[in-house]
Amino acid sequence: MTQKRAVVLVSGGLDSTTVVAMAQAQGYEVYALSFDYGQRHRAELHAAERTAKAMKVAMHKVVQLDLRTIGGSALTDNDIDVPEQESEGIPVTYVPARNTVFLSIALGWAEVLGSLDIFIGVNAVDYSGYPDCRPEFIAAYEAMANLATKAGVEGRQLRIHTPLIDLSKADIVKRGTELGVDYRLTVSCYQATESGAACGKCDSCRLRRAGFEAAGLPDATIYS
Predict the structure, then answer these.
(1) Which sites bind ATP (predicted)?
(2) Does 204 appear as a known binding residue?
(3) What does the pLDDT read at residue 167?
């Protein structure tokens, strides 16, 4: 029997790497999809390449976009500083429409591959206030995907899987550790050095560190 295929969005960070392991544990052949979208640093792309290779995915594709042309985020505009203190509301690290764009390309690739399954590591517990990480967004996108594609029109149900949506960062770390994820290969920091060393101060670093602490597991993250 042919193994079922899944497109998994992979950033090189802790969450998406855990999702790769979870999809593989469910019997999917993983086609990893990353984006070189003009983000502040390339360390996460190098991490995505490392993890994809280590986890023996079927294919790892990197799509080039240039979201710097619209800016509007600390991750795509060097004139906007990455905050190192907690803030209320939607943070400046939110990249406008990023998950909408990424999922659209994932949807196209899934159709080409004959896959009906897309995995994304969005999280509604430790989601940092990003509107495109909410369950409502995913449900709406899945409904749209089944209206907008050949597969959907032909009655083959496309699914957007969000296995981390209700998990705390500690739960994610525990689950990934159980599945053998090597978190030393991952980079989560919004302003990592070229070598991948984390700042330890940004929102993503704080959530990651707190997750390991709450899970009672050692954090092998290298900090600058």
Answers:
(1) 10-20
(2) no
(3) 95
Q: Is 117 helix (H, G, I), strand (E, B) or coil?
A: strand
Is 189 annotated for ligand binding? yes
Q: Do 95 and 73 contact (CB within 8 A), yes or no?
A: yes
* Average pLDDT, integer, range 198-216: 94
Quick one: angle between helices 14-25 and 43-54, nearest 10? 20
Report the SS3 class of residue 149: coil
pLDDT at 68: 93
What is the mean predicted confidence (pLDDT) over 9-20?
A: 97
Burial 140-158 (b: 16+ CB within 10 A, else e): ebbebbbeebebbeeeeeb
**Which domains does the chain carry?**
5-215 (3.40.50.620)
Beta strands (DSSP E) in the chain are 5-9, 29-36, 59-64, 117-119, 159-161
Q: Is 21 helix (H, G, I), strand (E, B) or coil?
A: helix
133 is in an annotated binding site: no
Distance from C-alpha of 8 to C-alpha of 109, rounded to nearest angstrom: 11
